[in-house]
Amino acid sequence: MNALLKDGYRVVKNSEDAILKNIEACKEISAILQTSLGPKCMNKLIVNHINKKIVSSDCITILNDLEINHPVVNILKKLSETMNYEYGDNTNYVFTIATEMLEKASYLIHDGFNVNDIINGFKIGYNEIDKILAESTSFKIENFYDDKEIFKVIKSAMGTKKLSNNYDTLISLLSKCLSTLMPEKIETFDVDNIRITKLNGGNLIDSQFLMGMVISKEPNGIVKKKENAQVMILNCGLEAATTETKGTVLLRNAQELVNFTKGEEDQMKKIIENIKQAGVDVIIVNGAISDIAQHFCDANDIMTLKITSKFETIRICKLLNVHSLVKLRTPEPEEIGKVSSIYVTEIASKKVTIINSKNKKLGTILLRGATNNLLDETERCIHDGINAVKNAIKSNLFVYGGGCTEVQLYYKIKQLSQELKGIDNCSVKMFAESFLSIPRILATNSGYNNTDVVNRLISEHSKGNVEACVNIDRNDEFITSAKKNNIYDNLKCKKYAIDLAFEALQTILKIDQIILAKPAGGPKPRDKNPDFDEDF
């Protein structure tokens, strides 16, 4: 084979060796991620290629900052990215379940089972999952305007990043925010209607919810507050236009100096007056504001607000449902947005501007925290909670969390395996055991003996106690009721994760050869000679 290919190619011929090497690679990465699963998870400190330090327990954040070269591991990474894109949650779950299924399949391969027989056996168990999950439905959210109902939905999603002892306060804050901003037609709920602003200092318990959009700076001029105002947005500077020519001017006397600046002043005065006559009360500028333009804006009682971020400008355009102007001119009526209020307030010794739209409900969660890493992780936690509600709008059926549903899947699928014989019996049993990895990891991360916890859970479920789950709040009892503690997972989200994991399992098990080409690129550049001078 090597004789047929160019120099540098490597080929793993034995199909079993190829499959087992792929599974080992997946297990290596999964071992890193497993300790970051669940509320009692550990953080990872990653220093990336540009020397940026990331502290996080978020699966996607970890995978994106790990430069993974292995093609099969990248398949599982793609699963997590797909899960994050579709549901914004269960990214670690899908990676862990897929790896566990592969590991159970590797045991059968070692015992001499054919790969196709293993896949067929796993498929028998997989076909029962829809029925089992439907029977396990335990909660259905009806009222999205009740913050107590929303609290139940987002608790499990946000609980996976237990940031501090005050995380219940954070969940309550988001519940209030979501119930307040929920539109009349819940299907039109937009996650972008909830903005997150981060301010260093204070504690997480000092975080607050504000109606409107928060800009972390104050207006430039003397006008600090406007009610029922009309707004124009400039995507250029509020200053006189200049030509790209040489700026040398010959002035022969004092009168010429006066006339030189007067023409520019008259031009700017006319532009600002025309803007005022068009009904504009506020100008939001993504660019520079000249002193002379600011002077005439103050004289005409126009508020000016300078925005340095183009993304912030896009969000304001979306809030006001208008387009930004790329040239300084008098706006048309359809280019003017309306706000119910725009004003300055002080939060934590920092002046901020709050914009409230007339047409759209928009709110901002103002996060406080000691470090940037804590604020970033809290922001990811809030995004998980928002996505949990978005998923609940798509499908409002929930199953018990905390490893409870996985034990139920194991128990029911194992009962099915006892009705089968031969290869199918072994394959279905192994498929069932792969689900026990979730309660086992949750128990290990909580500091329990995972064997004792899993055996106790299986015993409780066999007695009909379908609410039994891992008690993450470590005390004398390591089993608790998922219903009493409001631990729920979205049924559709969990089913989609298992679907993705099973598809990846089939793909990876059918890879019988690994053919690696020589990496592209020329030789590395020579190192600098230490004997050369700096300027050589």
TrEMBL record:
**Taxonomic superkingdom:** Eukaryota
Query: Where does this protein reside within or beyond the cell?
Result: Cytoplasm
**Gene Ontology MF terms:** ATP binding; ATP hydrolysis activity; ATP-dependent protein folding chaperone; unfolded protein binding
What GO cellular component entries does it have? Answer: cytoplasm
User: Which InterPro entries did the record assign?
Assistant: Chap_CCT_theta, Chaperone_TCP-1, Cpn60/GroEL/TCP-1, GroEL-like_apical_dom_sf, GROEL-like_equatorial_sf, TCP-1-like_intermed_sf
| Keyword annotations from UniProtKB, A to Z | ATP-binding, Chaperone, Cytoplasm, Nucleotide-binding
Alphabetized CDD domains for the sequence? TCP1_theta
The answer to whether UniProt assigns keyword DNA-binding to this entry is: no
Please state which protein family the record places this protein in: Belongs to the TCP-1 chaperonin family.
NCBIfam families in the cross-refs: chap_CCT_theta
**Name this polypeptide is given:** T-complex protein 1 subunit theta, putative
What species does this protein belong to? Plasmodium vinckei
